[in-house]
């Protein structure tokens, strides 16, 4: 009969646990205290040149027209100077973005992979609330209006659907 393998002593387990905990604490410290230095090091190592500019991406983009919203074409082209700015006001843009979120949420819900509550919370970045004027309630109403009324499923239809699904899985 084979000899049982001895378990490490309590002191050895304590030492291993302590080293793992210390490593984790040092890693968290480095992530929280040194992000600027790490980011600068990473930028320098990826490009080979140290970046001294603190310019953001938005500051590097061409200027936009403030009187008529965002430009519809890049500046500097002879034809583009004759084009008017985009005439959609910001309120209309927000409505279009919201409707796109509603349509995306409906597509995800209809796929059947995620529930309606989770989809609304993720797509609209809000938490479930019982208030009628909450962002969640407004998003839920918009999604349900897009989905339409739920069609009742009768027992005969359900049996046929289950049989089709089982047959599709067996193929």
Number of helices: 7
Percentage of residues assigned to helices: 55-70%
- Averaged pLDDT: 76
- Note the quaternary state here: single chain
Strand proportion, as a percent range, falls in: under 5%
The count of β-strands is: 0
Helix- and strand-based class?
A: mainly alpha
Separation of the first and last Cα atoms: 50 Å
- The shape is flat
Give the radius of gyration: 29 Å
Tell me the series of helices and strands, N- to C-terminal.
HHHHHHH
- Unreliable stretches covering 5 or more consecutive residues: none
Largest sheet: none
Describe the structure.
The chain has 171 residues and is an all-alpha fold. It has a domain at 86-171. The protein contains seven helices and no strands. The chain has helices spanning 10-33, 35-47, 57-60, 90-111, 116-123, 135-147, 155-170. α4 (90-111) packs across α6 (135-147) and α5 packs across α6 (135-147). The radius of gyration is 29 Å and the shape is flat. It starts with 9 loop residues before the first helix and ends with a helix. The mean pLDDT is 76.
Sum this structure up briefly.
With 171 residues, this protein is mostly helical.
Topology overview:
Layout: H1 10-33, H2 35-47, H3 57-60, H4 90-111, H5 116-123, H6 135-147, H7 155-170
């Amino acid at each position: 009969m084979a000899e049982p393998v001895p378990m490490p002593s309590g002191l050895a387990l304590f030492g291993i646990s302590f080293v793992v905990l210390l490593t984790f604490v040092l890693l968290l410290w480095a992530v929280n205290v040194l992000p600027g230095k790490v980011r600068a090091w990473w930028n320098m190592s990826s490009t080979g040149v140290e970046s001294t500019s603190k310019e953001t991406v938005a500051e590097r983009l061409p200027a936009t027209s403030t009187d008529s919203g965002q430009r519809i074409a890049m500046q500097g082209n002879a034809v583009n100077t004759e084009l008017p700015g985009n005439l959609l006001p910001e309120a209309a843009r927000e409505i279009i973005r919201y409707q796109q979120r509603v349509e995306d949420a409906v597509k995800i819900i209809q796929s059947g992979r995620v529930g309606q509550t989770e989809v609304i919370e993720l797509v609209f970045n809000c938490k479930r609330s019982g208030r009628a004027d909450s962002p969640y309630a407004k998003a839920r109403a918009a999604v349900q209006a897009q989905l339409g009324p739920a069609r009742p499923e009768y027992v005969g239809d359900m049996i046929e659907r289950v049989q089709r699904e089982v047959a599709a899985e067996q193929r």
